[in-house]
Amino acid sequence: MSPAPRRRSGGDIKTKVLDELRFLRNWIGNPLTTGAVAPSGPLLARSMAGYINPEVPGTVVELGPGTGVVTEAILERGISASRLVSIEYNPDFCALLRDRFPGVHFLQGDAYAIRTNLTGIAELPLTAIVSSLPLFTRPLAERQRLINTALDMLAPGAPFIQFSYALVPPVPHGAGDFTIERSNWILMNLPPARVWIYRRPAKA
């Protein structure tokens, strides 16, 4: 049995402030890879995790966990730590996450190379992919390639879950064989955000 995750407390003001300072420092150092000046809010994180069906077996993959707000929501959704594989580019965030969530498999690497990173780590098809990557910092062709590769690795109908602050989806309709669903605006998040859910329908 995997060790219980060491949860960060949403009521721990000191932890929240330190995480926001970590994000700000990393954003100043490299805004294209950090993509935000603060971690996602808990309402947004829970909304993203809510699209995962914990009753479906298999591996859940998280892209760009940052300081672990969405990681925590995934675990609270009922996904065991042993089922969660998370890819984080920033080595400082990786060290923090490994201490904060023992039992979760954290990989330090480029999430855009998702297939390479998961070779020999996760059995396909995957159950869900949850992404907090700043997709709009990359050209459309790279975003399209990531989502289509990710959907190839997911079971038919399984979700690729992505948040953004934009009015339009990170990869538009017609850019691949997928459907797109969107959440309502999560106004309590700062800045307000919405969740985009990509799925590849099962072939008839």
What's the gist of this structure?
The chain is an alpha/beta fold. About 30% of the residues lie in helices and about 15% in strands. The protein contains seven helices and seven strands.
Could you explain the architecture of this structure?
By secondary structure, the chain is of the alpha/beta class. It has a single domain (13-199), classed as Rossmann fold, CATH 3.40.50. 32% of the residues lie in helices and 16% in strands. A seven-stranded mixed sheet has the order 3-2-1-4-5-7-6, sandwiched between helices. Strand 2 (84-88), helix 5 (91-100) and strand 3 (105-108) form a beta-alpha-beta unit. Helix 3 packs across helix 4 (69-76). The radius of gyration is 16 Å and the shape is globular. The chain starts with 12 loop residues before the first helix and ends in a 5-residue tail after the last strand. Residues 1-5 have low confidence and may be disordered.
CATH homologous superfamily annotation: Vaccinia Virus protein VP39
| Order of SSEs | HHHEHEHEHEHEEE
The low-confidence runs, each spanning 5 or more residues with pLDDT under 50, are: 1-5
User: How many discrete structural domains?
Assistant: 1
Q: Could you give the count of β-strands?
A: 7
Largest sheet, in brief, is:
7 strands, mixed
Oligomer: single chain
CATH class reads: Alpha Beta
Question: Can you tell me the CATH topology?
Answer: Rossmann fold
- Average pLDDT works out at 88
What's the arrangement of strands in the largest beta sheet? 3-2-1-4-5-7-6
Q: What is the rounded distance between the termini?
A: 39 Å
| CATH architecture descriptor name | 3-Layer(aba) Sandwich
Beta fraction? 15-25%
Work out the radius of gyration.
16 Å
Q: Kindly state the percentage of residues in helix.
A: 25-40%
Helical segment tally? 7
Backbone structural class: alpha/beta
- Shape, principal axes of CA atoms: globular
